[in-house]
Amino acid sequence: MECTSTVVDLLNDARARTLLRYASFHNQWEALFPLHTAIYAAEPLDNEVFGELFAAIAWLLFFTRLRHLRLSGVGLPRRLIPHISRHVTLERLTLESCILEPIMIGSLHPRLQMPNITSLTIGFGGTPRSNSMECWSVVLYCVNLRQLFVYPVEDNSIVHYPSSSLFDGMSHLHYLQKLHIQGGSSLLRPLASWIRHSGDKHARLSHGHLTHFKLNTVIGTTDDELSILLDALSTFHPNVRVLVLEGIVDTAPAVTRIAYEFPQLEGLTIVRKVDMFQKTVRLCQWDMPSYAIAQVLAALPRLQHFAANLDYTRLTFGPAAFNALAYPALDSVAHIRSAYADSIDAILYEHLFSPSRVKTAEEKATCLALIEKRDCYDSLLDGPSIARPFAVYCNSLTSFAIKTDRTAFSCHIRRDTHGNAVLYDVVDKDVAGGFEAWNPLHFETWMHLD
User: Which top-rank group of organisms is this from (predicted)?
Assistant: First the structure.
């Protein structure tokens, strides 16, 4: 195998062997030759085909100080587990389209525990032999898990939650700090039952340790399903600080419950879907006005970031622009300056609303420069207008965004010496906005816990 020879070359290089922290092994046969492998593909655990690869991985683990191991499209044989569990520095494990030996499925074997793995990522599906229910069994062996990220490998696939038969062995969910489920089922009762079961086993000791929770569902989730999940979360993990819910149908009851049951929230992102059948995320009207949402969120004293897929028209003039229109005599820039008391808005107003006026090249350049810098968009775009109620009602808020899969509008918020909210770094482009700490980008997750 070319892969094994690459590992040998790597191990012969002392400098590379010392510095290596991440290794990824990806079986590309099915992706490159789907028709051939559909007939002749070897089982990912076939020792005759993959035995050399498993031996190479074992040698790599023995001679390096890896922190993150990724396996894609290959099996996780029982023989590799001791090499993983004995590794001093290895703490992250990513398994994508992998399968387990039958003996590892459904029940925990103490000799196969991997107590050093604190961060686990599972990519479900991708091959006919990668069964999602079986892959959940990996969680059984990561007994000190602190961060879990799961997602479907294929588009439009769904992550189904673990069956109740695994709950006893997966009760360490209670001690997770970050849980991220991407592309999950909208039927949330099994997930709520898992949270409740693990909480019941450890409730006498303390509340759960969960600080970050993100759930993205493929289709819309009804309030009946969501309320059961929120009840389990608020009961056993009331100290959640960052909450992301993408795919809610009924936002009004959800926002109200969240505001009063998660008092420690610092970051909240809610993405609505108009019904249970919607898959594509887009901006949409919510079932409560934005100012009402802001009033409800005022109950969260620590909220620093809020994002939602509220629909808005970015070219609608905000209130400040209509203040300028209230002045009847606008024949000169000087009059606008004295009446409106803002030279930036005055020049921009003259540029936009008096096209017949002959402008000097210097004035035109000034207007264009102001527009390019967005120093005066605060008066002319509706984005800042939709952000203002949240900035006013939520005194601790420092950032706000309108987003779907990507960010459509964002701004930061600061307070002047009088305590008034001032919006800055206003961006109305389709960019990330720099808010990944509050909500990871699509099919990415939060940074690993140090």
Answer: Eukaryota
